[in-house]
Design a protein that fits this description.
With 139 residues, this protein is mainly α. The chain has one domain (6-90, 124-138). It has 6 helices and no strands. Helix 3 (43-56) crosses helix 4 (60-80). This is At2g35280-like TPR domain-containing protein. Residues 1-73 form the At2g35280-like TPR domain. InterPro entries: At2g35280_TPR_dom.
């Protein structure tokens, strides 16, 4: 991650990819977020890395939350201070996509993992864009 900044973006991605391939959960998450931020052909690969980060963190929404928390501190100063990441617009045809399941109320910040399990998404892409925006806003 130390190699990643605006001046050495491609070099930094290569280092993140090596660390992710070696099983570093933070690198998997960071690489997934980074690839999603590019909004191009790399989006599908970004989704795959976020899914792998979730599995490395124990699986499901709880694994993704764990990966996010571990990666946040590491990346906060590096990416946000340089303005590398900005929230993405999210337009889904399904009005219920990303919302809490019917009958579920927000449980507050202390129950984040449970609330993540209660959200419904129509696709891995929508889930990943939601995750990307949540991550950027929390940094």
């Amino acid at each position: 991650v130390e190699c990643y900044n605006k001046k050495r973006k491609e070099n930094g991605k290569l280092h993140l990819a090596v660390a992710a391939e070696e099983g570093c959960m933070e690198a998997m998450y960071a690489l997934g977020i980074l690839l999603l931020s590019e909004q191009g052909p790399s989006t599908a690969v970004g989704v795959e890395w976020l899914e792998r980060a979730a599995k490395a963190g124990g699986g499901g929404a709880a694994g993704l939350v764990k990966s996010r928390k571990k990666a946040m501190q590491m990346l906060r100063d590096l990416w946000i201070a340089d303005g590398l990441l900005q929230p993405q617009p999210w337009h889904c045809a399904d009005d219920e996509c990303g919302k809490l399941a019917r009958g579920e109320a927000s449980k507050g910040w202390w129950c984040e993992e449970d609330e993540e399990n209660d959200r419904r998404f129509c696709s891995s892409l929508c889930r990943s864009i939601y995750e990307f925006n949540k991550f950027v806003k929390q940094l």
